[in-house]
Amino acid sequence: MESLVAIVLLALEVLTFVVLAHVIMSWLISFNVLNPRQEFVAMIWQGLNRLLDPFYSRIRQFMPNTGALDLSPLVLFFGIYALRIIISNNF
């Protein structure tokens, strides 16, 4: 059972880093540091969007529209952190 818990915690940690990379990359694209028309940047950006869109779309269904400010990554961070606490304390 401990192995399964360790694997789930590792997956949650990897997901945290992926969300963080997505947030940082979106800032860099917004401030014109990265050019999304470059093939390598576009490939990474599309991959991160495809990976995280199922999580973000579920969260966006319940959140109010805040215009250009997207708070779904923040909610996902809180959810991941809460899930890690629940798993760590119960096993």
Descriptive notes:
- Helix 1 (2-30) packs antiparallel against helix 3 and helix 2 (39-62) packs across helix 3 (72-90).
- Helices cover 79% and strands 0% of the residues.
- The mean pLDDT is 95.
- The chain has helices at residues 2-30, 39-62, 72-90.
- The relative contact order is 0.15.
- It is an all-alpha fold and 91 residues long.
- The longest helix is centred in the first third of the chain and has 29 residues, at 2-30.
Class based on secondary structure composition and strand pairing: mainly alpha
Overall pLDDT metric: 95
Multimeric state:
single chain
Helix content class: over 70%
Order of helices and strands: HHH
In short:
With 91 residues, the chain is an all-alpha fold. The chain has helices spanning 2-30, 39-62, 72-90.
Summarize this structure as a short list of keywords or feature phrases.
mainly alpha; globular; 91 residues
Q: What is the topology?
A:
Layout: H1 2-30, H2 39-62, H3 72-90
Helix pairs in contact: 1-2, 1-3, 2-3
